[in-house]
Amino acid sequence: MAKDAIAVLTSGGDAPGMNAAVRAVVRSGINKGFNVLGIKRGYRGLLKKDFVEMDLRSVTNILSLGGTILYTARSKEFQTPEGIQHAAQNCMDMGVKGVVVIGGDGSFMGARALSEAGVPCIGIPGTIDNDIACSDYTVGFDTAMNTAMEMVDKIRDTSQSHDRCSVVEVMGRRCGDIALQTGISCGATAILVPEVPYNIEKDVISRILETRKNGKQHFIVVVAEGVGGSVDLAKYIERRTGIESRATILGHVQRGGSPTLRDRVVASEMGYKAVELLAEGKSKRVVALKDGKIVDYDITEALNMERVFDTHLYEIAKTISM
Ligand SMILES: Nc1ncnc2c1ncn2[C@@H]1O[C@H](COP(=O)(O)OP(=O)(O)OP(=O)(O)O)[C@@H](O)[C@H]1O
Ligand SMILES: O=P(O)(O)OC[C@H]1O[C@](O)(CO)[C@@H](O)[C@@H]1O
Ligand SMILES: [Mg+2]
């Protein structure tokens, strides 16, 4: 009798550690007796029936690779009712009994739609933003933070030599987690995030002037992408304080590079769990890390959860960066 097939895809923005998750899905799937297929370029590839056979050796030596060997994409076509039906039909044609979707919240909405169209899906949070409310952690976050920290350390060197203020914009479309963690790790004088309302005079200018009074001569301001405006902010700081200022937008450098140990391990655990859920006949679930344990939630329940920003950590950052 032919084996049941499951498939795995990566979708939305790539994240370091996605390969470790793919590897875990492939190896756990084969271990459970499934035939495992990879789908290239997320939902876009699913619509094109771009499936590849995965065997144990197809995922050799990918743990340390950044990016995703399955490639990724964003697909508007998939989001239509016809697109979902077409994608479900392609899965059925290929004998696919379940799909593991590695991506962010948008990808999970796609996984829910595909599950409702008859193809059981399990989501794994893979995004550098750490913006999935149900999970304390998303694959890629640790690597991205460490990259950002390394970059800000370098910017600090030149900022210090010139007695300047450096405004550094880090990624995070609606989420300030990368900014907060990077800001703390680099001793930023001010950190601006979309979750906390701010006043430029009080939260940036006054802090710079106060710390200058007690001897500080160079300054780092970390701004989350979701706040934006870092170039204008640098100009404003220079105008208001007389301190020469520069803006740097770190951008996609944060999405690349070899994943950290944490990303490799969490991705591996989540990949294993996703296959376990499919093998148990589960559908429309998201794997998450909660209080140090790998758990799972219904996708709708997960998507309806509210993200909680760590305001305590934010207050600590403000207190100790004076
Ligand atoms: N409401 C939806 N219904 C069906 N599919 C969706 C929906 N929203 C998004 N998708 C699909 O998921 C893909 C990825 O979504 P999106 O671009 O929001 O990225 P993401 O998974 O949230 O990752 P990230 O935000 O980290 O880049 C979309 O291109 C689309 O194909
Ligand atoms: O790949 P793109 O379209 O440039 O997406 C950038 C977005 O993706 C992320 O890197 C991850 O969601 C965000 O931080 C950023 O806003
Ligand atoms: Mg998203």
From TrEMBL:
Residues that coordinate or bind Mg(2+): 105
Cofactor: Mg(2+)
Active site: 129
Keywords: Allosteric enzyme, ATP-binding, Cytoplasm, Glycolysis, Kinase, Magnesium, Metal-binding, Nucleotide-binding, Transferase
Ligand binding (substrate): 127-129, 164, 171-173, 225, 246, 252-255
Cross-referenced Gene3D superfamilies: 3.40.50.450, Phosphofructokinase domain
GO cellular component assignments: 6-phosphofructokinase complex
Residues annotated to bind ATP: 13, 74-75, 104-107
Gene Ontology molecular function: 6-phosphofructokinase activity; AMP binding; ATP binding; fructose-6-phosphate binding; identical protein binding; metal ion binding; monosaccharide binding
Family: Belongs to the phosphofructokinase type A (PFKA) family. ATP-dependent PFK group I subfamily. Prokaryotic clade 'B1' sub-subfamily.
Name listed for the protein in its UniProt record: ATP-dependent 6-phosphofructokinase
Taxonomic source organism: Ruminococcus bovis
Gene name as annotated: pfkA
